[in-house]
Design goal:
Strand content of chain A: under 5%
Oligomer: homodimer
Low-confidence stretches of chain A: 115-135
CATH topology of the largest domain in chain A: Multidrug-efflux Transporter Regulator, Chain: A, Domain 2
CATH class of the largest domain in chain A: Mainly Alpha
Largest interface: A-B, 47 and 46 residues
Strand order of the largest sheet of chain A: 1-2
DNA sequence: CTTGCCTCTGACGTCAACGTCAGGTTTTAG
DNA sequence: CTAAAACCTGACGTTGACGTCAGAGGCAAG
């Protein structure tokens, strides 16, 4: 498939895909005229790239670890970096959880004391989708 | 206390504190000569600001919601925004958890098949701090 | 053939949360 | 009193992951 279709399928911009290539995260076959062509599997790879970007990894780090993650195989060296990143993500999850709980506390403390902020009905509560402590 | 001490106590730079003030997140008493002075409570506020920044909230959003969070009181309007941010954070936690689990899978799949990647000893495992599925 | 859409490279623009530097004032230590 | 350290405002620099625009080709349809 060409770049436009890959962009549509993976939900990222054409610009982003060219940027990924520039960063060594994604390679493409070139047709004679220079146009990029991708195999089906490229969409999965792009999703994986986005997943890692969303976790706060840099282009450089992703470039280093992406082969391992795709192949589900690691060398001792890469495993150390993978573990380091995992620990960072764990810490981030912990911090986010504390932040979320703090917001939750504010939300559920029945509003401001002196504002006539009653529980009128459940319409507001219903809008808040399901929430347990740690799903 | 003055800005340098607050910076030291809260672990952020002096520049960051001035930036927070510029964004309306932190106010300071000014001495006659124009120097900023902060009460003890400012350190907690700075920690809270950092907490919210780390959760991906923008300066604008933090400025809007910080009073609610500090006072643990919310109006119906602010509660909606708080809930929206909490949902965003929840989604982020879920995504991070999936990413972490993916990295974990790669890490624990006993290395690359053909590399002589043995479990030599527990020194490597011990270095990986405690890890359960969902602490 | 030409119309219209897709693609190419190259290069500058953006945005947020600060870093850093310049040039000057204030506070503190000796 | 004086030198060092801390502080002030103002302004430009940085970084990463793209957005956007310009100008030039490529490709199937009518």
């Amino acid at each position: 498939m060409r770049i436009g279709e890959l962009a549509a399928r993976s939900g990222v911009s054409v610009r982003a895909l060219r940027y990924y290539e520039e960063q060594g995260l994604l390679d493409a076959y070139r047709s004679g005229s220079g146009q990029r062509h991708y195999p089906e599997a490229a969409a999965d790879r792009v999703h994986l790239i986005q997943m890692l970007y969303a976790a706060g990894l840099s282009s450089r780090t992703i470039a280093d670890l992406l082969p391992c993650v795709e192949a589900k195989a690691s060398t001792p060296a890469s495993r150390a970096r993978l573990a380091a990143e995992r620990d960072r993500i764990d810490a981030q999850i912990a911090a986010l959880t504390r932040t979320r709980d703090r917001l939750d506390a504010v939300i559920h403390l029945s509003g401001s004391p002196e504002s006539g902020c009653a529980w009128i009905a459940d319409e507001d509560v219903a809008a808040e989708a399901g929430h347990s402590a740690t799903p």
